[in-house]
Amino acid sequence: MILTIDIGNTNITLGGFLNEKLTFTSRMATDKRRTKDQYAVEISAILKFYGVEKQIKSVCISSVVPEITDSFRLAFLELYDINAVVIGPGVKTGLNIKIDNPATLGADLVAGAVGATAKYETPLIIVDMGTATTLSAVNKNGEFIGGAIAAGVGITLSALTANTSLLPSINVKAPKKAIGSNTVECMQSGIIFGSAGMIDGLIDRFKDEMKALGESEEVKTVVATGGRAEQIVPFCKNKIVTDNDLLLTGLLEIYKRNKN
Length: 260
Description:
Layout: E1 2-7, E2 11-18, E3 21-29, H1 36-49, E4 58-63, H2 66-80, E5 85-86, E6 96-97, H3 107-119, E7 124-129, E8 132-138, E9 143-151, H4 153-162, H5 183-212, E10 221-225, H6 229-232, E11 241-242, H7 246-258
Parallel strand pairs: 1-4, 4-5, 6-9, 7-10, 10-11
Antiparallel strand pairs: 1-2, 2-3, 7-8, 8-9
Helix pairs in contact: 1-2, 3-7
């Protein structure tokens, strides 16, 4: 079994692939204060819970939290004597990155782009809705040509409630209509419909710019992933495929390119 791990700012997602089929996924909270030993205990408990602890043969990790990356790498080395593949310099991704400084592209965006190009027709746009909301553009040749970064739903809501005296913390769910008739509905409208409108607007701009850059075809696929995707995508006007396992698929593909 190949264990893939995406370490994000809010959550850590684990996915186990057996014969290239995703057989289980699990999530744990990201906590920079936890030690290697604490993460090792939780990793071991999760793998035992799913009955796969003795099946793990290899591990591939993407991380945007450097403080935790080494804790995971060392945990697998000590627990199972496995040298994990960690996305970074020297790791073969097969992704041609056409931005000003390719080394600055986040490991999560690399994994998402590799997963998307493995599963979907290009040119394509990837929307990743986690702590931040990111959009990535991949051209018809499978090259990563750039993207956009915006505050995610959670950050937006936290900033709104922390910096205003009278706005309460709310449950993030879609109201029945955009024009709210009370404070909670108004906030829900701004968060849900506002996020959907922002994503639609960026997608439309991406499509126009990708065409202007010389794409001979229209964008074929828009795919969304991340913890907030299922909440927001239904309210977008663009046709968007939701794929919760996109990054894990990308990590599997990257592992296969580095398994020797």
